[in-house]
């Protein structure tokens, strides 16, 4: 009997943890309101672009004549897991992570409250996970790969990862290109200086904001004044999510999920 009671308790705890981790949270405290059913059953719905696009920022640039996919609003909030980059340590690693968090939180409230998870271990299911990598200056600054699976009229939206690329120092770049470490180190005084720590953090912050925009369902903008412009500015410290960026993402989440603009 004691064994049965013990198993029942373990089962109850496990089920409670599962419900705590994966259950929808819309309508709860610090979450978006639960949407009407028709707002999340939009696949197959066709809307007039002429009525939507004038007030939707740049939303229609790449979304015209194709379904507009996004996270279901009944998720309530988005949880983003941001661990420390493995290629850095100490204060540098903490500063890089904090810059990424600041960039991601630029979208807080548009429409979801964004919950940042930095714990090494967690029972919570996260929606988006930051992946850190080092890359050369001519490589992509970041990458976000959202996915959408149509289930009847509903859309299951997901993210396979949000990558942030941090440029290496000039010496690290030479080593990455195949130069022996001892030779690269001997050239250190002759190499041009790399980005300052402040410039690197500004880049990480801007890239995190840009990729989080993609993670929310946004495509690219046609204006250098928007964070979703596809080319990273030489001075990323000036980059911020603009009013037009927010107008675009807010418009996306007022559309039925999966609807097509024509």
State the order of secondary-structure elements, H for helix, E for strand. HEHHEHEEEEHHHHE
* Fraction in helix: 25-40%
* CATH architecture assignment name: 3-Layer(aba) Sandwich
The tally of helices reads 8
How is this fold's topology laid out?
Elements: H1 2-22, E1 46-47, H2 49-52, H3 60-63, E2 78-81, H4 90-104, E3 114-117, E4 128-134, E5 142-151, E6 154-166, H5 170-176, H6 181-186, H7 197-216, H8 243-252, E7 260-261
Describe this structure in words.
The chain is α/β, with parallel strands linked by helices. It has one domain (25-261): Collagenase (Catalytic Domain) (3-Layer(aba) Sandwich). It is built from eight helices and seven strands, in the order H-E-H-H-E-H-E-E-E-E-H-H-H-H-E. The chain has helices at residues 2-22, 49-52, 60-63, 90-104, 170-176, 181-186, 197-216, 243-252; strands spanning 46-47, 78-81, 114-117, 128-134, 142-151, 154-166, 260-261. It has a five-stranded mixed beta sheet with strand order 3-2-4-6-5, with helices on one face. Helix 4 runs parallel beside helix 7 (197-216). The model is unreliable at 2-22 (pLDDT under 50).
